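User: Structure please.
Assistant: Input sequence and predicted structure:
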Amino acid sequence: MAWQLGDLTRKRTTDTVGLTRFRLQRGSASGVRAGVAIVIAAVMALVATGVAAQQAARQAPPPTRSIVKVTGDLYMATENTHNTVFLVTPQGIVLADPINAEFSTWLKGELATRFPNRLVRFVLHSHHDFDHASGAEVWNDTAEIVAHDNFAAEVKKAAAVGRPGQYADVRMPESTFHDRRTITLGGANVEMIDPGPNHALDTAVLYFPRERAVFFVDFITMKKRFSAVIAGPAPFPEWVKAMRAVEAINFDIAIPGHGDIGTKADVVTYREYFQDFIKVVSDGIAANQTVEQIQASPALDKYKDWQNFPQAKDKNIAEAYALLRAPRP
């Protein structure tokens, strides 16, 4: 009588040296064939999964990281397309977004080499998005973590709808601000300013008055770069107010969370484009046009030389169309 793998019951016996093995149950020859087929399929699936994981690991390029001096003691640090900034003072360093744990670990080593005995004393969050806010724990042995007073609530909401574990590395702030707060370290000031609702409800624009520079993330882009971010909880007129609030700050240098460093003129240019963009979509909706008709319109062609225009235009129009037509609470 044949042994049947398909009806294996996983009954265990233990020999005198404590090794556990499965006792096979007797069955038909057809059961052997079926069982063998199942085992072969399982092994092949495991092999295929392992090969795919190895290929993905080989294909993923290492992150591109850099540190550049902006002006004075203000620096910009970058990982791929994400920027943050830090200010070096005699008593330590003020850092903006940590970006992620791996980047922060790398940056911590770089700062120790470049600026020995100057520890990071503050980490200032621009907003809650995980791709900017992760990794603050790396700095928490020496730094106070500061964010907008809406930060914790926004993390909770985002984590509830995001991928499992997406916000696992986002640490809650140890102190918060509302409207405006000045961080002072080593004779230098950094102002955290709430410009109003936009892409997020917990935005902090960082203003470096001595350096006449600002740092903002995800609601303004520089150097005629077509934004990839158009969605957010605030109505579009509130975005415009937030942009004007940035324009009202006394600065020359504009550092975005993505892309190249610009000037106040670039902030104005982007705000004017944004208003034009929203008007095109709003006028199309008022004329009962479909999203496809608005996308096919030449009304935004004057921006066709902007970075990311071919990739982002139709996507942004579709998102704005949906948001403008959606009922607001």
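The chain has eight helices and 17 strands.
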